[in-house]
Design brief:
It holds the Pfam family DUF3228. InterPro entries: DUF3228. The chain starts with a helix and ends with a strand. It has one domain: 2-Layer Sandwich (YaeB-like fold). Helices cover 18% and strands 19% of the residues. By secondary structure, it is of the alpha+beta class. β3 and β4 form a beta hairpin. Strands 1-2-5 form a three-stranded antiparallel β-sheet, with no helix packed on it. It has a two-stranded antiparallel sheet with strand order 3-4. The longest helix has 11 residues.
């Protein structure tokens, strides 16, 4: 495919992965130090699958007019859930601290379970049924 054809193809995509999110893909070196979900899919494969399922009418409003949510059935990644119900059995493992994603953001209070205390080979996190893709325009 020529570069002009590649550019035309790229411009036809409704959705593309922003460079900020590259760290969430195993093909990117930054994924090795990222603490969130890391996809084993390539960025190109992820974009192809997501664009094939994209339907603008299914977008949900986000926190601001330039932010939308696209909920999509997760039948193409190994992404695991990243939330757990707080129960009497696990509440003693709950931790809190202030965290910012970047140096430019203000820290916010977060609550979390240390993964090594609630996940094991015999008790893995389930694969997520849906993905919440956050879209910015």
């Amino acid at each position: 495919m020529s570069s002009s054809s590649a550019k035309e193809e790229e411009s036809k995509k409704a959705l593309v992965v922003d460079p900020f999110a590259f760290r969430q893909f195993a093909e990117n070196e930054a994924s090795k130090s990222y603490g969130g979900t890391v996809f084993t899919n390539t960025i190109a494969d992820f974009e192809e699958i997501v664009n094939a399922q994209y339907d603008e009418s299914k977008l949900q409003d986000g926190y601001a007019p330039f932010c939308k949510h696209f909920f999509i059935k997760n039948d193409f990644t190994d992404a695991q859930v990243n939330i757990l119900e707080i129960t009497k059995e696990n509440e003693g493992f709950l931790r809190c601290h202030y965290e910012a994603r970047t140096e430019k953001e203000l820290p916010v209070l977060t609550r979390y379970f240390p993964k090594d205390l609630v996940v094991s080979e015999s008790n893995p996190l389930p694969v997520a049924t849906y993905l919440d893709l956050i879209l910015y325009s």
